[in-house]
From TrEMBL:
Pfam families on file: DAO, GCV_T, GCV_T_C
Protein name from the UniProt record: FAD-dependent oxidoreductase
GCVT N-terminal domain residues: 398-666
InterPro entries to which the protein is assigned, alphabetical: FAD-dep_OxRdtase, FAD/NAD-bd_sf, GcvT/YgfZ/DmdA, GcvT/YgfZ_C, GcvT_C, GCVT_N, TrmE/GcvT-like
Protein family per UniProt: Belongs to the GcvT family.
Gene3D superfamilies: Aminomethyltransferase beta-barrel domains, D-Amino Acid Oxidase, subunit A, domain 2, FAD/NAD(P)-binding domain, Probable tRNA modification gtpase trme, domain 1
Residue ranges of every copy of the Aminomethyltransferase C-terminal domain listed in the record: 687-758
SUPFAM superfamilies for the chain: Aminomethyltransferase beta-barrel domain, FAD-linked reductases, C-terminal domain, FAD/NAD(P)-binding domain, Folate-binding domain
Source organism of the structure: Amycolatopsis rhabdoformis
FAD dependent oxidoreductase domain: residues covered: 6-345
Length: 768
């Protein structure tokens, strides 16, 4: 690629304009932005809310506020920080506002809980008798999307970018696995990098390069009222608005001089706006704002919003075509922040923020089916409908056995995963779980896993088979630990970025000289490994998850169960190919469940037979099935970190307490250079183990000496130790064992203390 590559951005909306601005600011000035229509014509409500449960999304919005707040176009503002006011009309909604305030504090956003009277003082049209309180975020506000887009475009043009209207893209040229240009109906544009920023047209652009873009257009209706006497004289045509944006559920309300704009997400239909279709949101708006009773809908519009199955953006490079990127499904509030990270990714080779939840590669192939994308996008965008229960997508071979045991399921990466089992509600261990515990059955499952034996379905964990003469050098380069051990060696390790940040974790099982089984965290890790495959064909990666299955067998009696299933000596730390009863299986030490035991791998066709054999052999020992809630508790008790939850690409292994998985003296590996000289010397923060007075949920702010100091990453009840446990990122000065801190939990400060060690060390593994 050229030192300053030729970039073509498809789409001159606010995201495309923001990306052109960010790229040219970093010196990539050969940027061409194409749009199939005229430039800078679209507009929308322009509502900006910063606080999100996801830290990265909040950072996107914070940057959008800062950037657009400083932008003007011909002396006119692009963003007005009038504030936001989220309303609660029920006790449950009020509790959620307390939690949202916690998120805001964790991520560095100013936010305040307001009484009904204070809410009415902030927005004079609001009836305080109709609300229980509100969350006021002064830095939120309203923007002019078209104005913000044009202002950024003009800055990019001043640095050398060009914008071309009336260019409908009909093809993308490629050669040797790379993009080489973009073809429109009337012209051809050479390119080293192409970025799709087309919104609802993204799937059509994706089809030009054989890329499934999991996005569907869904409806958001927006109406403007007739003039309201109550607003007369409050605003002028320049400022437009002065009161905070109101939010309640899917309803939003903002000012337009002497009128109000009311928005509502429906998720269904794309027909032109009809006032009759707006009756329900209108009635809710009138209930909260009585001044609307004498007003009417003057005009309205149905906007099509690009929506994904999980409501997150799609950012990243085509997995099979170098140089083709997407920045799609980006809400206006996140536009500048997302564009900045994509620009950093392109220019610097990696983003600075953790983009795992927004990565284009996060979906498994089965999750890209159009019907599935639409169903899940509607549920995420407009909320689930009671008459449309969620349909299972992926089930393990043990699913029928789970149903027979009364499993309560949740979904992850399309898989149905048992959280706990109703069959265990009568376990005597439940009497040892406090009545106040919200997951008593899961607690009993965790106790049995510690004291007897349990099986956990580990099938959903993605598994790869990596083979070829270059397999060992490839894995040595891509992972942090020493893998050049004997056949059967099972080695935990990490995947790092060039900057030394933790992208994910792996467990590598050496099956032979040139054959390895690798467990990764998510599809993003699989894509990362594929992206770095050598071009000489010396390494092959095969995704084997769907064709195989895995049971975790753990607890002090797990060895007895294995003894009843196999005559082979399974003593030691190596993986073995053997038979369990009639089932050919790979048996290897269990590394990351928080309790000693084994992983039992076999083909999906033999999964039920494996389950039945283990279940029969375990019956004399009191075996139970344990779900993900019990596994989460065992993990926290053992002090095991979770990549993606506790540790992200923004953290290095040493500050995260994962230095044992890093072998700096094995030679080069990706990220090694960034880590040299770093252990313990430069860390300003630390992933800290806490014991808390109250069981928290995660993402709450942690206070030290009365001031916000960090945030909780994950938490669980340690059922076998009788303590509430959590991990939190804290400055090193307040991460010393015994240090008292406080956690803000639904508006209350609850005590916690920094613990010196895991509540229950995992100890040596059992052997048969």
């Amino acid at each position: 690629m050229a030192a300053r590559p030729r970039v073509v951005v498809i789409g001159a909306g606010v995201v495309g304009c923001a990306l052109a601005d960010e790229l040219t600011e970093r010196g990539w000035t050969d940027v061409t932005v194409l749009d199939q229509g005229p430039l800078f014509t679209g507009d929308g409500p322009g509502l900006v809310r910063q606080t999100d449960a996801d830290r990265t999304m909040t950072e996107f919005a914070k940057y959008t506020v800062a950037k657009y707040g400083a932008l003007t176009l011909a002396g006119r503002w692009c963003f007005q920080p009038v504030g936001g006011l989220e309303l609660a009309t029920t006790a449950q909604e009020l509790a959620q506002l307390h939690r949202r305030r916690g998120w805001a504090t964790s991520w560095g956003v100013r936010a305040y809980l307001r009484s009904p009277r204070e809410c009415a003082e902030l927005h004079a049209l609001l009836d305080p008798a109709k609300v229980l309180g509100g969350l006021h975020t002064p830095g939120d506000g309203v923007a002019k999307p078209r104005r913000a887009a044009e202002a950024q475009a003009r800055r990019a043009i001043d640095r050398g970018a060009r914008f071309v209207a009336g260019q409908r893209v009909v093809a993308v040229d490629r050669a040797g696995g790379r993009v080489t240009g973009v073809v429109t109906e009337t012209d051809r544009f050479r390119a080293d990098v192409v970025v799709s920023c087309t919104g609802v047209d993204a799937p059509a652009i994706g089809r030009l390069v054989d890329l499934s873009v999991p996005l569907v257009p869904l409806a958001h209706r927006y109406a403007r009222t007739t003039a309201l006497p109550a607003l007369a004289g409050d605003n002028d045509d320049f400022t437009e608005a002065g009161k905070p944006v109101l939010r309640h559920g899917e309803l939003t309300v903002r000012e337009h001089v002497d009128r109000l704009g009311i928005g509502h997400s429906t998720g269904h239909g794309s027909e032109p706006f009809v006032p009759a279709d707006f009756d329900r949101p209108w009635a809710e708006a009138v209930r909260l704002l009585p001044a609307l009773a004498d007003a009417k809908v003057e005009d309205g519009v149905t906007n099509l919003v690009p929506a994904t199955p999980d409501g997150r953006p799609l950012l990243g490079e085509h997995p099979d075509l170098d140089g083709f990127w997407v920045a799609e499904a980006v809400a206006f509030a996140h536009s500048a922040g997302a564009a900045r990270e994509v620009a950093r990714w392109l220019v610097d080779g990696q983003p600075r923020l953790d983009l795992r939840a927004s990565d284009l590669a996060r979906f498994e192939r089965v999750q890209l089916a159009p019907d599935h994308v639409r169903e899940r996008a509607i549920r995420t965008f407009a909320g689930p409908r009671p008459d449309e229960p969620r349909r299972p997508l992926r089930t393990s071979p043990f699913y029928e056995r789970h149903l027979a045991l009364g499993a309560h399921f949740s979904e992850a990466a399309g898989w149905e995963r048992p959280e706990w089992f109703r069959a265990n509600e009568s376990l005597p261990e439940i009497s040892r779980i406090p009545a106040s515990s919200g997951a008593r059955t899961a607690g009993a499952e965790a106790i049995v896993a510690r004291e007897r034996v349990a099986v956990v379905d580990l099938t959903p964990a993605p598994r790869l088979e990596i083979t070829g003469p270059g397999a060992l050098p490839f894995l040595q380069t891509m992972t942090t630990n020493q893998l050049d051990g004997p056949a059967g060696a099972v080695t935990p390790g990490l995947l790092l970025g060039e900057h030394g940040g933790v992208r994910g974790d792996v467990v590598v099982t050496r099956l032979g000289a040139t054959r390895f089984q690798v467990r990764v965290s998510t599809a993003v890790d699989h894509a990362w490994l594929r992206r770095h495959l050598p071009g000489d064909g010396a390494v092959q990666i095969h995704e084997i998850t769907s064709g195989t299955c895995c049971l975790g067998l753990c607890g002090p009696r797990a060895a007895d169960v294995l003894r009843a299933l196999s005559t082979v000596d399974l003593t030691g730390e190596l993986a073995r190919q053997t038979y369990l009863a009639e089932v050919p299986a790979l048996v290897q030490p269990l590394t990351d469940l928080g309790e000693a035991g084994w992983e039992l791998h076999t083909g999906a066709d033999l999964g039920r037979r494996l389950w039945d054999a283990v279940w029969e052999a375990g019956a004399p020992h009191g075996i139970v099935a344990a779900g993900t809630l019990a596994a989460h508790s065992l993990r926290l008790e053992a002090g095991l970190r979770s990549c993606g939850a506790d540790v992200t690409a923004e953290h290095d292994p040493f500050e995260a307490g994962l230095g044992a998985a890093v072998c700096l003296d094995k030679g080069y590996f990706l990220g090694r250079d960034a880590l040299l000289g770093r252990p313990g010397a430069t860390a300003g923060r630390e992933l800290t183990y806490l014991v808390t007075d109250v069981l928290v949920l995660g993402k709450e702010p942690v206070y030290f000496a009365g001031h916000p100091a960090g945030y909780v990453t994950s938490a669980a009840r340690g059922h076998t130790v009788g303590k509430n446990l959590a991990y939190a990122w804290l400055p090193v000065e307040c991460a010393k064992p015994g240090t008292p801190v406080e956690i803000e939990y639904f508006g209350e400060r609850v005590p916690a203390v920094v613990a010196a060690a895991p509540a229950r060390p995992s100890g040596p593994r059992s052997t048969a």
